[in-house]
Each structure stands twice: as structure tokens, then as C-alpha cells.
Design goal:
It is a single chain. The chain is of the alpha/beta class and 307 residues long. Helices cover 29% and strands 24% of the residues. It contains nine helices and 14 strands. A six-stranded mixed sheet has the order 11-10-9-12-14-13, with helices on both faces. A hairpin with a 2-residue loop joins β1 and β2. The N and C termini lie far apart (53 Å). Bound molecules: guanosine-5'-diphosphate, magnesium ion (MG) and zinc ion. Zinc ion binds next to α8.
């Protein structure tokens, strides 16, 4: 909970807030009574730059607020630069056709950062038969939540319930309807449009990350940058650790260090063959594993070459 008065130190009033936007020389910070634009103490900027999502302490000196401290971060993402994310809402839609490799990679990077995930099917007003079932078959029991909404119809109650009391990022491919959902839920009016239209106009409609506060402690961010996920810090042999449904089975694999790709007597592969684990997701696991391995190989080669 956000206490208005975080403390009082030698007569200086401290107020806790959340950085919602980085401006050129200031920070927009949400406090219980509204939003203030503040400068940061030089010392802070030298040590660590505040990012959107940071929980900060503001000092109130003669009606002026100054950012005096950044509280320890629960998590910190580089691209997009944000901190303290509670939930990543991976949005998919029947159009554009989902790239499930991207969805899986998002789940891996969220798990790695210790962030909850939700897979949110938007545009349920135009879903073809079987689409939603396919998403549920792949992601229920994998993502923390799977839910269905329609920004066009205003059918967003389930998502609103999920967002309550958290800082959530709406991620996903371009044109799945992230901005439309944010507009609906947050009562704002950000620019919506097809990717092709945006490219034609040569315009990138979203600059930087901005948190939108919908209730006292509920924040939502539209985060288009999530499309270009880089898993290069994940060792191929660790990939399976971010597939919780595999972790529980792996003790039954013959080899302790089983990667579940080629090894004999693999409990994960057996479960896929028996239809107990989703095959499409498993095939993509192998693909991502191979991609990580190839990338690592190239890195080693390059290092050797440069010596
Ligand atoms: N049929 C339908 N279209 C939607 C829905 N939500 C968004 N759209 C359309 O999808 C397109 C892309 O939406 P936008 O919010 O800009 O997607 P973003 O790139 O993910 O932010 C726009 O033409 C929207 O009108 C929905 O629930 N149903
Ligand atoms: Mg958008
Ligand atoms: Zn195995």
C-alpha cells in the first residue's frame, strides 16, 4: 500500500510515489493526491537513473517536491526500461496471426525476471472457431492466467480484475489491440491503428514507457518494445527451467542434465507423445533451444576469432 506519508526526517516530509514517465529533465511521479513533476537530487542521478515503475521517495520542501531516494527494485527490465513489474499481459489476437515463439519467449523472460504472466486473447468479437481453445490448450497451466477480452465490445471485466492492485505491462505483437485495451480500461485516448498505416505515415506512435494509473495502486503500461525479445542471457541448458510444466517431470528423465530435446528415456518427450503436454509448445521449445545453442556457438566462435 502507498502511504501518503512515508516518514518525516528532521522536519522534511517524505512522500512515497511511483515514477510513471521519464521527461527530458524531470520525472513524472504519481503520489496519492495526483501526479507531480519533480527533479532528482544530483546524487541520485549519478548513482542510479530512475526508470518508469520505480518506487521513489519524494521530499517536500516549501511546496516543491524533489526525488530523494529510489527504493530497492523487485525487478528491472532493460528493454523496455522499467522496474517493479507485477504482471506481463501477453496479448494475442486472431489477427495478426499469433507468433507463438514470441509468446513463449516472453514467458521465458518473465519467468527469469520472476514476473507473473497472463495470456490475454483480444478481439473475441472476431475469433474463428477453435482459436481460443488452441490458446487454452497451450497456455492454461503454463501462464498464470489465460483470459479472453474484446476491446471493441468493451468486454474487459476479466482483464480489469486481473490488473487491480498491480503494475502490469501489456505486451505483444503490433496491432493485437494493446493500445485499444489501455484506452478502454484507463479512459485515455492513445492513438490506435494498423501497423501498415503507422508505417505508411512514417510514425512511431509510442515513445518511451508511460504508466497509466487507473486506481490508487493500479498501473498499466503499453509496452510495444517487448516484441524484440533477447534471450541471449539464457544458457540453452537452462531454458527448460523456465518451462515449469517440464521442471516437475525432469526428475523422471534418465539423465540428470536432460535438455528434453534428443536424450533417450526423457519424461518430457514421453509426456508429449502421450498427449499429456502440448506438442506445439514442445516443438517451439526445441526451436528456441536450438536458436540459443546456435547463438552461443557463434559467440564462442567470434571470441576465438577476435583473439
Ligand atoms: N475486431 C476487433 N478489433 C480490434 C479490437 N481491439 C483492437 N482492434 C483493432 O486492431 C487494430 C490495432 O489496434 P491497436 O490498439 O493499435 O493495437 P496495438 O498495436 O497492439 O496497440 C486497430 O485497428 C483496432 O481498431 C477488438 O477487440 N476487436
Ligand atoms: Mg499500440
Ligand atoms: Zn528429459
Amino acid at each position: 500500500m502507498w502511504a501518503e506519508l512515508a516518514g518525516s526526517l528532521e522536519g522534511v516530509i517524505l512522500i512515497r510515489g511511483r515514477v510513471i514517465k521519464i521527461l527530458s529533465d524531470r520525472f513524472a511521479v504519481a503520489i496519492p493526491s495526483g501526479t507531480v513533476e519533480v527533479k532528482s537530487r544530483k546524487k541520485i542521478k549519478r548513482e542510479v537513473l530512475p526508470v518508469a515503475g520505480d518506487s521513489v521517495l519524494l521530499e517536500k520542501v516549501a511546496e516543491e517536491y524533489v526525488l530523494a531516494a529510489i527504493e530497492p527494485r523487485v525487478n528491472r527490465l532493460i528493454r523496455p526500461p522499467i522496474a517493479n513489474v507485477d504482471c506481463i499481459v501477453i496479448t494475442v489476437a486472431p489477427v495478426p496471426e499469433p507468433d507463438f515463439v514470441v509468446v513463449d519467449k516472453m514467458i521465458v523472460s518473465a519467468r527469469k525476471a520472476g514476473i507473473r504472466t497472463a495470456v490475454c486473447v483480444n478481439k473475441t468479437d472476431i475469433v474463428p472457431d477453435g482459436f481460443t481453445a488452441r490458446i487454452f490448450a497451450q497456455y492454461s497451466g503454463v501462464a498464470d492466467e489465460v483470459l479472453c477480452v474484446s476491446a471493441s465490445r468493451g468486454d474487459t471485466a476479466e482483464l480489469q480484475k486481473l490488473l487491480r492492485g498491480k503494475f502490469s505491462c501489456l505486451a505483444g505483437q503490433s496491432a493485437v489491440g494493446k493500445t485499444s485495451l489501455v484506452n478502454r480500461i484507463c479512459g485515455v485516448n492513445r492513438e490506435v491503428g494498423e501497423l501498415s498505416e503507422k508505417i505508411l505515415r512514417g510514425k512511431n506512435t509510442t515513445v518511451g514507457v508511460e504508466l497509466i494509473r487507473t486506481e490508487l495502486d493500479t498501473y498499466v503500461a503499453d509496452t510495444p518494445g517487448f516484441g524484440a525479445l533477447d534471450l541471449s542471457s539464457v544458457e540453452p541448458s537452462d531454458l527448460h527451467l523456465y518451462y515449469e510444466e517440464y521442471v516437475s517431470l525432469s526428475e523422471k528423465c534418465k539423465y540428470r542434465m536432460c535438455t528434453h530435446t534428443v536424450e533417450p528415456d526423457c519424461a518430457v518427450r514421453a509426456a508429449v507423445q502421450d498427449g499429456k503436454l502440448n506438442e506445439e509448445r514442445y516443438d517451439r521449445y526445441c526451436l528456441i533451444y536450438k536458436e540459443l545453442k546456435d547463438k552461443n556457438g557463434r559467440k564462442t566462435w567470434r571470441t576465438t576469432y577476435e583473439k
